[in-house]
Amino acid sequence: MSSTPDTQCLLETPYFKVVRENGYFIIKEAQAVNGVVAVPTLADGRLMLVNLRRRAIGGQSIEFPRGAIDAGESACDAAARELLEETGWQASEVRQLGLLHSNTSLIASAVAVCQVQIAEQQAAATDGEVDHVLWASRQELLAMIAAGQITDGHTLSAAMMLLASESA
Length: 168
Fold this sequence. Notes:
Layout: E1 7-12, E2 16-21, E3 24-29, E4 33-41, E5 47-54, E6 59-63, E7 66-68, H1 75-87, E8 91-100, E9 110-118, E10 132-136, H2 138-146, H3 153-167
Parallel strand pairs: 4-9
Antiparallel strand pairs: 1-2, 2-3, 4-7, 5-6, 5-10, 8-9
């Protein structure tokens, strides 16, 4: 990225750039939609959450599965792939619920949110990232959020998008 009088590249990594534009610091990634949150749903309505260690917060986090969208991959394909890699569960149907912006004052890219229908049977081995899988009804999910057990912004946003799409 070349610098102009109003834009200066401060840091460039293989994953993102930090620029200063008109006095503001902005993180820019290669793709406008660079990540996906999968909201795994069984036929009976229960939702799958994962418990995993997040080094940035120094502890465990309860979240919906999520990850990067590979170059040339659709958000729906990435949601199905991330679900399989992290949990071993196969997607049967995927629909995109919308986009979320993690931090509109700092991060330029968006994250797609996809509801992923899953069958009752676990499919394959995982990448080992997830410590264990949890199942929750929508009421149990709301209770976990109210109790402060779920603090991950992507999961909170995805839960709201799911509930809003069902009441619309």
